[in-house]
Structure formats: structure tokens, C-alpha cells
């Protein structure tokens, strides 16, 4: 049957609470006027002692986001979105990041199981003009990861200006499955923005928390020509603020969810609509093979923030399938589940704002880079209960994100997670009044890492904390 996701995202409620008009509307965008672009794949510089080296410079650039004038951005290699890393499991890489902007920056590999020194922590910023080399072992599961700026206090601002991109980790297990690959494996990063009349980004003012224009791969409301066959889409909500989306296809066809943030599911799960919070990834297959040639199918977003359009993008079915097409696999991978009985530590985290002081807090505390909040033991399995204890009058959702580890959702308000979110995850939405239990294992690295709300404005406002994994 179709797994609904009804429990997850009554975000309209929040909008009605806060008012949904932008301070200044963006220029009108003609829908589907521009073609979707695929971010370029980053080319390795060289290989030495078994490590692939990549070079990236963070700098200003111009991006064709709207028709007409280009938009000034800050981007990895001056591009928006940044170039896509395509890397192989167990093939480590080093990324030499050069900061050519006039501000401190920190690069974070979201979902990455990496040494603390490569995690982009406060205190490890790259000064203007400097470089820093990040080491990514790639020993974790193949999945859709991404990278973005993590300069403390400016995460939302810097990534709003363009500093984000894909990191696709591939392994041999995927090949065995005959999933759509090559040009049929398409990253789709969804991001909201406001624009000024000259097409430059307009920064949100207080009270605005999601843009009125929706971009896919850095193009406003694009169209994409597809063949009559299944496609794999790496959906990523890369919004910098609170741009929750709830996606569906206007021909009523399901999205087959095949993977979560940290890897593939056991089998494809068809859903009629798919809520995706900022920083979550859903790997999906859409099957255009039963659709007539010439059909135009709109990807819709049911969450209406600040007058944004419901039509995210359009798929134009323009060609017959080329060559042999594998059917959607019935089975994917075996998911190893952690045993709750083996958990050696239980922790509880309350997420709540203090609007009087304008802070958002975890267990009553705002982030302090000098403070270690918890010390998980290397090798330990832990269960975390995370509660959104916001007041019912202002039911703000939070998106809880852990660095370093992937978790399974044990339950949400006592009920098991929906089938399409039962895989490995590093980010999860928790509605006000809700409580969720997560299980995770601290397996690979010691040192400091963050956990925080991934509505990045909330993290900037203090909803972030620090763990130190110890022996
Ligand atoms: Cu997407 Cu702390 O990260
Ligand atoms: Cu939050």
C-alpha cells in the first residue's frame, strides 16, 4: 500500500500563526521557462599515496537563477550549487579548500563520518586568503550526502548566499541493483530564496523564514526533459532557513522512496506525497514509463510559505526510452538494526525557544563553543529521546541533526516510523509537542562534533550543542 506521511508536516499551521506575506515580493518568475541544469562533477586534481586530492575555492560568482540578469552568489568554485563530488566507498579523499571570500568560513560534509578536525567546527574556520585540507575517509555507506558552510552563527547566511553542493558516495552494492544510473540518476536540490528587482538575493527580514521563489539545482522553477523510463532523483532540501516542502506529482503517480539520508532502504516504498525538511535527503525513483509521450508532469509542493508557487518544477516526457530499461528492483539492501537492549546510555534533549531573549535552546542552553554538552563513549550504542517542547501557541517544528553518526528512528510519539523513513538518517523533523526516539552507535572517531536544529536560523539562534566522543 501507499505509506502516507500525514503525521509529519502540518506546516501550514505555522504559517497561519506567523503570517505569510513577504516583506517585498520577488520579481514574478515565469514557470518552467528555463531548463534544469545539473551541477558539474568535480574533477580530481591528482592521486597520491592512495588518496584522491580535490581543490575547491570559495569565491564570488554569478549564477543564472532567474531569466535575465544573473545573481551574484558566493559559491564553491564560484558556482551555485557547488560542484558535485562523486566518490567511491573506501576510497579516501582530501579536499583543499581555499577561502577567497573576505570572511571566515568552515566547510561541513553533512552526513559525513569524518575525523573531528575535518568536520568544520567553530574554532576550525578558514581565514580569508587561507586554505584548509579536509580528509574524508568514505568508509561509510553509499548515499546522498552534501556539503555546506558551517561558520558558527552564519550558517544560514553563508549557505543562503550559495555555499552548498552534493557529495554522492557510491558503492558496488548499488551497481548490483540496476538502479537508474548515469544521466538517469539526477540530483535535485530544492532551495528557497527571495530576490530583489535586479535579481540579486534579498536577505530575509525578521519574521520571514522561507523564500517566495523555489530553485531546483539553482534554477527557478525549471523544466526537465525525460524519457519514458524510470529515473532516480536524489532529492535534497537545501534550504537555508525554514523551507519545509511536501512534494507530490500532479499526475498522481507515486514517488518510490529507495533511500534515506544515510543509505538505501530494504525495499522501495511508494508514497503519494513526501515531506522533506531542510537537510534531509530522499532518494526516490519516479517511473515515467507508463506516461504518454508529450505528457507534462508537475512536481508540486503543498507547503505555502510567503506566497511561493506550488509548482516546483516540471518533467516533460519528450522521448522514448533508449535501450534496455531495468525494472524498479523489488528488494534493495539488508538494513542492520541496532538492538535497543544493547544501548548503554539514554539521553533526553528538549528543544524549545525563549522568544523573550530571542534564543532557541537545547535543554535550556544556547550553544557555547567552549562547552562540551555530552560525552558519548566510543563504541557505545545510545538511545536519544528528543522532544519538541515548544508552546502550543507557537508550534515551531525543529529538524534535529547529528554530525558524525547516522541513526534509526525507534519511534515517534510511541509509534514506529513510516516505512519511507525507517532507514539510516541524520536529520529528522520533530513537530511541536512531539517526541522521537533515536538509536545510534558511536563507532569510528573520537573528538568533538555538533548536533543542532537544521533550520539553520535556529542553529544561529543557539539551538546547537557539542558532544565529545571519548574512549
Ligand atoms: Cu548540514 Cu551541522 O549541518
Ligand atoms: Cu529548529
TrEMBL record:
Reactions that this protein is recorded to catalyse: 4 Cu(+) + O2 + 4 H(+) = 4 Cu(2+) + 2 H2O
Keyword Metal-binding: yes
Record flagged with keyword Oxidoreductase: yes
Sequence ranges assigned to domain Plastocyanin-like in this UniProt record: 63-171, 353-469
Oligomer status and interactors: Monomer.
Family according to the record: Belongs to the multicopper oxidase family.
UniProt-recorded name of the protein: Multicopper oxidase CueO
Species of origin: Tenggerimyces flavus
